[in-house]
């Protein structure tokens, strides 16, 4: 054997050793399987307690569920329409149906291209986009036989604990909710004009001294009052304040507050697009990322990376959602500082089994895709 033949032989042997033949079965096969089948369903999630924030008071929420099937594999997705942005489940379903041919004919391995086209054709409807994105990523993970967290290069041991949310209610009900949340070491508390803020906090403090995270949901309107309220909250073991003023207020008002209080301020309703993050983080200390607001796993991943690039805090939140969306979000949670992924804990008819809670720490299964199963 001459030197040239030996080099060819050695190269071939090295390639074979690096990549066993059976691994080719896991590699994406573009165009395989023909068309996909996309099915949608509006699912009503029933709340364990009446859910009251500054925006609404509900006993249930409707979400859009998606099943994406191709090559004998089904990916599941869910989107919880956000009332604040004038979205609802019926319109989310219409949005998906309006591009059904695209969704069923597009190559799912080119999911980024597919979602760009979805955005081009359909403005808004972020919950619909979240449902499709989650279903596609579940499908991708199942096809390559890895959990989404591993697909993204994340360590499931790095997941944080989640808060448990206490919505506004009468003192008696607030006490009951707080006691029911005994397994959860950190609570998130909704405040606003519907119930006196001091009453909410004092009622909770009458039964627990756990750290609190407070969310006004744009419910306060006067910056001087915000400073006064935050100064009072700083004495009540509150870790941070979420969206104290309406999203539309000038950022200078937030800066004015920022200069007068030490408590971190987190933007939620003020941030609806990734391009807003650099400007908002000039005055806020962090951003609340929600899959239903961003439009799915991959866009939320981009939001998180942008906030991190500015050295800011990241909170991963949820709407009233099942274990489908909250498990999808939990796959991103090793990247964030704070998690508020208690959606499945707030409903009584979760259609899936997914992320688990070990003394509030998020536990992800070592299963392909989302790792969820039907309940």
Map the helices and strands.
Blueprint: H1 3-18, E1 37-52, E2 57-70, E3 73-79, H2 89-98, H3 100-105, H4 111-121, H5 126-144, H6 148-151, E4 164-166, H7 171-180, E5 187-190, H8 197-205, E6 212-215, H9 223-233, E7 238-242, H10 251-258, E8 265-267, H11 277-280, E9 286-290, H12 291-294, H13 297-309, E10 313-317, H14 323-330, E11 338-339, H15 343-346, E12 352-353, E13 356-358, E14 361-363, E15 373-374
Parallel strand pairs: 4-5, 5-6, 6-7, 7-8, 8-9, 9-10, 10-11
Antiparallel strand pairs: 1-2, 2-3, 12-15, 13-14
Question: Could you characterize the architecture of this molecule?
Answer:
The chain is an alpha/beta fold. It folds into 2 domains: 37-146, Enolase-like, N-terminal domain (Enolase-like, domain 1, 2-Layer Sandwich), CATH 3.30.390.10; 150-374, Enolase-like C-terminal domain (TIM Barrel, Alpha-Beta Barrel), CATH 3.20.20. Helices cover 37% and strands 21% of the residues. It has helices at residues 3-18, 89-98, 100-105, 111-121, 126-144, 148-151, 171-180, 197-205, 223-233, 251-258, 277-280, 291-294, 297-309, 323-330, 343-346, and strands at 37-52, 57-70, 73-79, 164-166, 187-190, 212-215, 238-242, 265-267, 286-290, 313-317, 338-339, 352-353, 356-358, 361-363, 373-374. The chain has an 8-stranded parallel β-sheet with strand order 4-5-6-7-8-9-10-11. Strands 1-2-3 form a 3-stranded antiparallel β-sheet. Helix 8 links the parallel strand 5 (187-190) and strand 6. Helix 9 (223-233) packs parallel to helix 10 (251-258).
């Amino acid at each position: 054997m001459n030197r040239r033949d030996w080099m060819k032989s050695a190269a071939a042997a090295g390639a074979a050793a690096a990549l066993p033949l059976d691994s080719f079965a896991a590699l994406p096969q573009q165009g395989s399987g023909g068309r996909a089948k996309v099915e949608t369903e509006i699912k009503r999630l029933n709340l364990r307690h009446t859910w009251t924030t500054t925006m609404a008071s509900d006993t249930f929420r409707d979400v859009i569920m998606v099943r994406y099937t191709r090559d004998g594999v089904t990916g599941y997705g869910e989107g919880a329409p956000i009332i604040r942005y004038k979205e609802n489940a019926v319109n989310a379903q219409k949005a998906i149906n309006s591009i059904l041919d695209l969704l069923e004919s597009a190559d799912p391995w080119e999911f980024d291209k597919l979602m760009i086209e979805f955005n081009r054709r359909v403005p808004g409807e972020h919950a619909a986009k979240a449902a499709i994105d989650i279903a596609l990523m579940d499908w991708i993970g199942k096809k390559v036989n890895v959990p989404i967290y591993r697909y993204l290069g994340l360590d499931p041991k790095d997941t944080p604990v989640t808060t448990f949310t206490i919505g506004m209610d009468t003192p008696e009900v607030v006490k009951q909710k707080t006691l029911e949340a005994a397994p959860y070491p950190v609570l998130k508390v909704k405040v606003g004009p519907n119930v006196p803020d001091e009453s909410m906090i004092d009622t909770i403090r009458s039964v627990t001294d756990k750290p609190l995270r407070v969310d006004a949901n744009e419910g306060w309107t006067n910056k001087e009052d915000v400073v006064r309220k935050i100064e009072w909250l700083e004495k009540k073991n509150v870790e941070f304040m979420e969206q104290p003023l309406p999203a539309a207020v000038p950022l200078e008002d937030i800066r004015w507050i920022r200069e007068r209080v030490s408590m971190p301020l987190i933007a939620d309703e003020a941030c609806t697009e990734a391009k807003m993050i650099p400007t908002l983080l000039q005055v806020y200390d962090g951003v609340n990322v929600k899959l239903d607001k961003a439009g799915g796993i991959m866009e939320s991943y981009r939001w998180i990376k942008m906030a991190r690039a500015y050295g800011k805090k990241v909170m991963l939140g949820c709407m009233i959602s099942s274990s489908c969306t909250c498990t999808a979000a939990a796959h991103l949670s090793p990247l964030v500082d704070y998690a508020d992924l208690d959606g499945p804990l707030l409903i009584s008819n979760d259609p899936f089994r997914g992320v688990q809670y070990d003394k509030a720490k998020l536990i992800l299964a070592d299963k392909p895709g989302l790792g969820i199963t039907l309940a």
